[in-house]
Amino acid sequence: MRLWLAGAFAAVSLITAFSVYLFGDNQRALVVAVLIGVLAGFLIAVAISHRVSRLAQAAAEMASGSFDAPLSVSGPDEIGDLARALESMRASLKESFGVLTADRNKLEAIFDGLTDAVMVVDDEGPVRFSNSVAMELLDGGRPPEAMLPQLARAAEVGFAAHPALRIGDRAYAMQARALPGERAVLAVVRDRTEEMRREFAEADFVSNAAHELRNPLAGISGAIEVLQSGAKDDPKARDHFLSRLAEDAERMSRLTQALLTLARVESLGAGETEVVDVPIAIRDVVAAVEPPKHVELVVESEADLTAKGDPVLLRQVMIGLLTNAFKNTPPPGAVTVRGRRDGETDVILEVIDTGTGIPTAEIERVFERFYRRSESRKQEGFGLGLAIARRMVDVMGGEIGATSVQGQGSTFWVRLPVAQPSPTPVA
After folding, report:
1. Are 346 and 380 found together in one domain?
2. What pTM did the predictor assign?
3. Beta strands at 399-405 and 333-342: parallel, antiparallel or unpaired
4. Of 53, 116, 296, 424, which has the fewest beta carbons less than 10 angstroms from its beta carbon?
């Protein structure tokens, strides 16, 4: 305050001298000088207070996190020095907080882009941080109850993990690590539901494939053993067992072919679609499958009906559905192949039979690999046809399904996107 004090003393001295000069060396001059000095001191104090208040306000804004407004720096005195120091600090803090904000935004973008749920859980329970995936798991700002034992263990021993933690109807793999300095636990949770379903499905597939191969292999081994034991010298027994060998070999060949077909279709991604002329495609399918005796085949198709799909895959799907319909329709009966438009966007191809129908409990499983419904288990087949058909329809970007009334018949349908007719449609 050296300049302000010097100025104040100088002003008071001048005022006092001037008052004495005007009023003389008496009490009246003294009173006037004092009043004028007090007024001058008050004005100087107000000016100083105003400058200090502006600095205090600027400091408060910086304390609240606002660093945008620059400080007004003026004066060669101590207040000016303080203002320049605060302005320098403001500029440095603004730059530092800008870098921190950019880094924070990058981290938030990275965490929100993860498919895993990431959360930091306070030792007392509340969640301090969570990405967008984790928000779906939180219950009122707290982790799910199923996670609490793993979080407690991680806080106690430093680390905890669970390969398949059940939360609702989903399964999650969880890893939790203690953050001692933060008095919190970092948890990373990954949804494994679909992965585990695929694992179980693959295990079932391998088991079912092995089971289907075991029966013909056992028949072949048994026939060979009987022939080697002397049956080969008996023409009648030899012919019988050779016939059995041929049947089992044919069954293994068909199963192997079906497995290879399924593997090839499973490896396909969404392919290029073509414009398929549905009436032509239906006529081609009907010509390829001969109906049994006393089973009527009815064909219904709207004219100028086209769909987006793969003509080769669609033909295989429809032939499989029509063949199944004939197998499950005892005479006298009827099977209808129908093509129709469903609204403005879809085309539906249906195979409708008057056969035995499918129980309600089994209708959702008929498209599973190796699944054979109860009425068809005595028939030839491996339960792969509809699984292959479903994958083929998936490749074409369509849907396949079935409805049935037991004892009255079934309807299997394929839904494909509608297409505008082209000059040379593919059948």
Report:
1. yes
2. 0.49
3. unpaired
4. 424
